[in-house]
Amino acid sequence: MKLAVVKQSITPDTPVFLAGFGTRDRKSEGVLDDIFVKVAWLESMESLVVITLDALGGDRSFVTGIKEALREVFGLKSEQVLINFSHTHCSVFLTGEASEGRRGGYSLGQSQWPEKDKDINYAEDIRYFRFIRDTIISLLQHCSQNLTEGTLLLLKGNSNAGVSRRLMTEEGLMFKPNFQAETDQDLFVLQLLDSQGELKGLVFSYGCHPTCIGPNMISAEFVGQACTELEASFPDSIAIFLQGCGADIKPLKTVIDDRFKSCTVEEMREAGVELAEDVMRTLSKSGALKLTGSMQTAEVGVRLFTEPWGLTEMLSIVGDETKTDYRRRAARRTADAIKEGSVRQVLPFTITVWGLGDGFRIIALEGEVPSSYAISIKRIFSTMNVMVLGYSNGVPTYIPTGQILKEGGYEAEAFVLHGYRGPFVPENEWIILGAVKEAEERLHIPKEE
Question: Taking the model in full, what pTM does it have?
Fold first, then answer.
C-alpha cells in the first residue's frame, strides 16, 4: 500500500454569493475561516483518489469537468475518483465550463437570487472552476511524486452530533428535532500511517447538515472546525471529513427545547470540538482493522423518475403566498421550463462502490441522501463494515425515500427548487438499493498473497 495526503485553501479572494440559504440577498461579507480542497491518493494495484471540497455541492458539469481533466492528466477512470462535498452552507455551489449537466438557478457571481436562468452569468463560476481544477491537478501531481509506503487502519465509533429534523405530529410533518427517529450515528475513522507508523492522514465520516450558523461569511462550518481541532492534535497529519447521508439531519448544537435555532460562532466551534472529541474517542478504541489486500472499484449509473406534474401544479406554487419568495421564484423558473419543453423529468444518478480488502466498503451516493438510505444499505451488507456517503460525485437535489415522500416535508418538496417537473416517485428507493447490490457484485477482491 502506498499513500499521500495534501490540502490547499480554495477561499475566494473577493466577495461571492454564498449558496445554502434562500434568504441571502448580497455577496459574502468576509471570511470566518478558510475553505479547503483536500486530496488523498491510495495505491495498491489500483489507484484510488479521494477529493473533498468545503462547498455546498457541485453539479454534473463540475464533477465531469474535474474527472475528465484527471483522466487526461493521470489516466484515472471515473470510478477511481471519489469527489465528496462537505455541504457547508457558508460556501458556494460549484459548476463547470460545460452547460450540459449544470444545475442552474445560482451563480457565485450574482448579487441576488435570479428570476430567470437566462439572467445568470457564469463567468465567475467558470474562472473558479478552472482554479479548483488546476489546484486539484497540482495536488495530485504532488501526491504521485511523494507516495510513501503505508498502512490503512479502520475504526468504527459513533456520535450523536446530529439529530433528525423530521417530526411527525397530529398536524403533519414538522421541521423540528426528533430524538426518537432511527438515524445513522456511525462514525468511521481511517488512519493513514506511513512506514514508520506516523499518522499522515485522518479520514472521518459522519452524516449531518453543517448548518449551525447563518452569517453571510465564508466558513467550513463545524465539520471544518473538527478538522482544525484534529490537525492541532496531530500536527503532521491532514484531517479529511467525508459527508455521510445527512440530508435530514441537523446539528444537535442547534436544538433549543423543541425547536432549532441558529448558533453563535462560538457554539458552532464548540460543535466542531465535540465532533473531534468523538473522533479521538474512536481512535482510543482497541481492535483497529488493518485494511489489506487489493482495492477494487465499481460504478453504476441509473435513472430516477418524477411524477408527471403539469403547468397547473407548478403555477399553484407560484401563486401560493404562504411559500417563501425563494421557492416561488424557483417554481416560476420551472414553470417556464415546462412551457418551453425543457423541464427536467429524469435524474441521472451515480453510485460508486470501493472495496478496500474483504471487509470494508465505501458506498458513495450522488445527491442529498437521507439517513435511512445508509441504514438500509448497512442492513444489506450486514457482514462487513460499510461507510455510506451522500453528497458524492454531484449534488443535484434531495433523494427522498418512499417514506419521506409519503410524509411530505422539505426533503420531499425540494424538487421544485432544482427544476424538476414533479415529486420523485417512491420506486426510486428500490432502484438505488438494487443498483448498490449490482455495483457490489461487480467487485472482485482477490486476497493478498
Answer: 0.96
Q: Determine how many CB atoms are found less than 10 A away from the CB of residue 68.
A: 14
* CA distances in angstroms from 3 to 237, 355, 382, 435, listed in the order given: 13, 16, 29, 30
Q: How far is residue 133 from each of residues 68, 73, 95, 130, measured CA to CA in Å?
A: 10, 11, 11, 5
End-to-end CA gap in the chain = 14
Distances (CA, A) of 198 to 3, 222, 231: 12, 26, 13
The residue to which cell 430516477 is assigned = 304
Q: Can you spell out the DSSP letters for 117-177? A: GGG---HHHHHHHHHHHHHHHHHHHHHHHS-EEEEEEEEEEE--SEEE--EEETTEEESS-
Q: In angstroms, rounded to a whole number, what is the distance separating the alpha carbons of residues 164 and 253?
A: 12
C-alpha cell at 39: 486530496
pLDDT reading at 447 higher than 50: no
Give the closest residue to 210 by CA, choosing from 247, 181, 179.
Answer: 247
Distance CA 219, CA 271 (A): 14
Cα–Cα distance, 362 to 374 (Å, whole number) = 11
- Whole-angstrom Cα distance, residue 250 to residue 211? 7
Contact 50, 352 (CB under 8 A): no
Q: Based on DSSP, count helices (H) and strands (E) in the chain, helices before strands.
A: 10, 21
pLDDT of residue 444: 61
Q: Per residue in 222-247, pLDDT tens? A: 999 999 999 999 999 999 999 999 99
Residue-averaged pLDDT of the chain: 95
pLDDT, tens digit, for every residue of 29-81?
999 999 999 999 999 888 999 999 999 999 999 999 999 999 999 999 999 99
**Predicted confidence (pLDDT) per residue in 132-148, tens digit:** 999 999 999 999 999 99
C-alpha cell at 314: 407548478
**pLDDT tens figures, 26-40:** 999 999 999 999 999
Q: How far apart are CA 46 and CA 57, in angstroms?
A: 27
Q: How far apart are CA 143 and CA 15, in angstroms?
A: 31
Answer yes or no: are the C-beta atoms of 1 and 195 closer than 8 Å.
Answer: no
